[in-house]
Amino acid sequence: MFKRLFGAKRQTNRQATDALYGEIVAAARQPWFYLQWKVPDTPLGRFEMLSLHMFLLQYRLHGQAGPAKDMAQVLIDEFFLDVDHSLRELGISDVGVPKRMKRLAKMYYGRTAAYADALERQDDQALVAALKRNICPDEGGDEDWRESALLAAYVKQVVHDLSAQTLDSICAGVLHFPRAGV
């Protein structure tokens, strides 16, 4: 009885969460982003790509009820636990981690608001500008980081592809992101 109450469902959710989060991380680590589209291959650049892919799944699950809503929350919790763990691995002290986490959470939610707004308004220029501003902020002017338009097209493709994936399959841990640059 206790196993049924506390074990089986939790384990199933853990397996689905691990599978989904693994797909998000794998999508964010595609070499194409860093080698061809010149996303900075730095801790911050990797955070940006992980944030973008987390946002894309959250965007798909937004407004859903039941298991999809629960999965969205579990995944965002997993994301921030992973970020916390990564900060500690980078040598940030226990005292410094909460301050950095607060800053990174603010960054994540600010970016996701900009991406969601651009997608909702179907404003390609706003999406390109938000990606440019967030992922390659050191590039100056409109001509720099031309690959941002390619990344914006990828983002739109992911939104389309995720919308075709059923909520049941996503909640079961089955998720597919398209390959970048294809």
UniProtKB/TrEMBL annotation:
InterPro entries attached to this UniProt entry: Ubiq_cyt_c_chap (IPR021150), Ubiqinol_cyt_c_chaperone_CPB3 (IPR007129), Ubq_cyt-c_CBP3-rel (IPR014569)
Regions crossing the membrane: none
Pfam families given in the database record: Ubiq_cyt_C_chap
Domain called Ubiquinol-cytochrome c chaperone: residue spans: 37-176
PANTHER family reported in the protein's UniProt record: UBIQUINOL-CYTOCHROME C REDUCTASE COMPLEX ASSEMBLY FACTOR 1 FAMILY MEMBER, UBIQUINOL-CYTOCHROME-C REDUCTASE COMPLEX ASSEMBLY FACTOR 1
Family label: Belongs to the UPF0174 family. Belongs to the CBP3 family.
Name of this chain's protein: Ubiquinol-cytochrome C chaperone family protein
Species for this entry: Aquamicrobium segne
